[in-house]
Design brief:
about 675 residues, disordered C terminus, excinuclease ABC activity, excision nuclease, DNA repair, DNA damage, GIY-YIG_endonuc_sf
Length: about 675
């Protein structure tokens, strides 16, 4: 364990100026990034008395092998640089406000001729407006089901839309008046876009004006004796009001604000955020994170100011990067008011093209010491002034108390859920250390699995678990090259050699930071070894992996094999397996690691096999390369539909000429005939 005094900077060498600092471990990997108004004061606090530090801070400084810093001109620059470095290096000791799941959003594809409303998960795209995220996909579908009778916009996929346009008949939603059926020309593209923009306006908060407009239309229809139309408008108004009932009015002055509150103990903290747009609660979200330091401000014993600073800089920094200002088309002029998204009360609204993720006001329980710099930074993200303040009285103070109660309740539930998990993970690592005779607990475990079908499309997966939890950003996939026909043992050896070859070379080098790219400062791929290397298999697989490590000179990695049949653990060179108790946490952890590697390998194998089967039917077509194959498959949706297409339909695809279209049609028709003939021959033989 490194001694902090061994790398403590010399007295007087640390500047008394604002800046950002990085702690690195002995291997050169960045493990913590922080900022300070005075680098000298902040860094000296880490080395004054290690025993008096917060437990997690003490673990960080004893894990580190060095510290470096960068001086900046202002605190705003320090905030921006700290955020950029945390995002770039992903230090293990920095608090990250992120979830282990992907939240669905309601996407409106304004970049298409006929915009579509649909549930979406994944990265944000230009030209698409997003509402949410929601905690559950059913919450989006429930909202859509209520609103489609009022805003009958398209919800079908591109393939379904094209197919119904070709057959000239709308889908079921078109028949029940929950879609305006632009696919068959019931409405023009401009009329359909107007429906979609009205839908976006409603979700953006323009609810009262829309309800009043429908009420006027209902009264006019009644005066003109159009009672069926008036009844339909009455039902539409009822649907809108039912959707509005899900949103509580909490601030009568129409305030746009985010209300943030915390609950904490000595080791962890919970944060809750209520997003209020137009005076209504549009979303709610929460996290539970580890605390690193006792307090954020000099002379302050409360950790809340530091938590406020960490949360605001990371949360709004990430939100602002989702969509760059000005890159998406505005849905409709919105005046001076910000646009809010979402209708659910269990998740926050995402930014859309017409608004900023940073509201006009951010209400917090305590102000950080550099509140002015933080407000300036938030104002820069928004493009207009942002107020950062503590509510003292009235409705805003009452709302803050509600958010605080939610934070305390979430923190209590988290501790009840996680107590068993934390204990189980610690017990599993301790049992593995004792059961396998390891020098230390295996904090980093890597597992390899091979997947193929009778020797075809042989692939391998490598998954990583740190502290008993999956670290999916470091998963790797391998296409087996040399040992594809030699069996699983040879494939395990090839993967092990490819995984550790570069690490062995870096570790044997003379540089001060092996495994660190000198140009980017980031760890190279496979630069850090695991404590435990698990292979899916029995003794032969474990022996093959251990032999490769021995050849490469890697001596600090333990190897085991886990056999599926009886869940036996095989150590290299041992004639008999090690049997872990069936109820032990150690065996359960190994099983989870092995099963995750198996899942990841099968997914890659299916993907590779699917691509090969899809492309194989077109491989013999002269002049048809990979790009035009992909264009054809994307246009028709599947090889089956392409085979059923005529020469004229194939020729209509952009980039496909008459000669190529005839060649594709002939090749696929011949393949279909061969398949039919072969099937007929088999039937005759039977």
């Amino acid at each position: 364990m490194p001694d902090p005094s061994a790398y403590r900077p010399a007295t007087g060498t640390i500047p008394d100026a604002p800046g950002v600092y990085k702690f690195r471990d002995p291997g050169g990997r960045v493990i913590y990034v922080g900022k300070a108004k005075s680098l000298r004061s902040r860094l000296n606090s880490y080395f004054a008395d290690v025993t008096a530090l917060h437990p997690r801070t003490r673990q960080m400084v004893t894990t580190a092998g060095g510290v470096e810093w960068t001086v900046v001109a202002t605190e705003v620059e320090a905030l921006q640089l700290e955020y950029n470095w945390i995002k770039e290096f992903d230090p293990r000791f920095n608090v990250r406000y992120r979830d282990d799941k992907t939240y669905p959003v309601l996407a409106v594809t304004l970049n298409e001729q006929y915009p579509r409303l649909h549930v979406y998960r994944g990265p944000r795209k230009r030209g698409v407006r997003y509402f949410g995220p929601y905690a559950h996909a059913w919450a989006i579908r429930e909202t859509l089901d209520l609103l489609l009778r009022v805003f009958p916009a398209r919800t079908c996929s591109t393939g379904v839309f094209k197919r119904h346009g070709q057959i000239g008949r709308p889908c079921l939603l078109g028949y029940i008046d929950k879609c305006s059926a632009p696919c068959v020309g019931r409405v023009s593209a401009e009329e359909h876009r107007g429906i979609v923009l009205d839908f976006c306006d409603f979700l953006s908060g323009k609810t009262d004006a829309m309800v009043r407009r429908l009420e006027r239309e209902m009264a006019a229809a009644s005066d003109e004796l159009e009672f069926e139309r008036a009844a339909r408008l009455r039902d539409d108004i009822g649907a809108l009001r039912r959707a509005l009932e899900k949103q509580a009015v909490v601030l009568g002055d129409g305030t746009d604000a985010d209300v943030v509150a915390f609950a904490h103990d000595d080791l962890e903290a919970a944060v809750q955020v209520f997003h209020v747009r137009g005076g209504r609660v549009r979303g709610q979200r929460g996290w539970v994170v580890d605390r690193l330091e006792e307090g954020g401000a000099e002379g302050s014993t409360s950790p809340v100011p530091a938590l406020v600073e960490q949360f605001l800089s990371q949360f709004y920094g990430d939100q602002a990067e989702i969509v760059e200002p000005g890159t998406e088309p505005a849905a409709r002029p919105t005046g001076d008011g910000p646009v809010s998204d979402g209708t659910a009360t269990d998740s926050p609204p995402a930014d859309d093209s017409a608004g900023s993720p940073v509201p006009r006001e951010v209400l917090v329980p305590e102000l950080p010491t550099d509140a002015g710099a933080l407000a300036d930074w938030l104002s820069g993200l928004r493009g207009s002034r942002v107020a950062l303040r503590v509510p003292q009285r009235g409705d805003k103070r009452a709302l803050m108390e509600t958010v605080e109660r939610n934070a305390k309740e979430a923190f209590t539930q988290h501790k009840l859920r996680r107590a068993g998990d934390l204990t189980a993970r610690s017990a599993a690592l301790q049992e593995l250390q004792e059961g396998l005779g390891l020098d230390t607990a295996p904090l980093r475990i890597e597992c390899v699995d091979i997947s193929h079908i009778q020797g075809s499309d042989v692939v391998a997966s490598l998954v990583v678990f740190e502290d008993g939890l999956a670290r999916k950003s470091e998963y790797r996939r391998f296409a087996i090259r040399e040992a594809a026909t030699e069996g699983d043992v040879a494939a395990i050896a090839e993967v092990t050699r490819r995984r550790f070859a570069k690490y062995a070379g870096e570790a044997g080098g003379q540089g001060p930071t092996p495994g660190i790219d000198p140009e980017t400062g980031k760890p190279r791929r496979f630069a850090y070894p695991p404590n435990l290397y698990v292979v899916d298999g029995a003794g032969p697989q474990a022996d093959a992996a251990a032999e490769v490590l021995s050849e490469l000179g890697v001596t600090d990695v333990a190897v085991v094999g886990l056999a599926k049949r009886l869940e036996e653990v095989w150590l290299p060179g041992d004639p008999d397996p090690t049997i872990l108790p069936r109820t032990s946490e150690a065996l359960y952890l190994l099983q989870r690691v092995r099963d995750e590697a198996h899942r990841f390998a099968i997914a890659y194998h299916r993907q590779k096999r699917s691509k090969r089967l899809t492309a194989s039917a077109l491989d013999d077509v002269p002049g048809l390369g990979h790009t035009r194959k992909a264009v054809l498959i994307k246009h028709f949706g599947s090889l089956k539909r392409l085979r059923a297409a005529s020469v004229e339909e194939i020729e209509s695809v952009p980039g496909i000429g008459p000669g190529t279209a005839r060649a594709v049609h002939t090749a696929l028709a011949g393949g279909a005939q061969d398949t039919t003939a072969a099937a007929g021959g088999q039937e005759r033989q039977q």
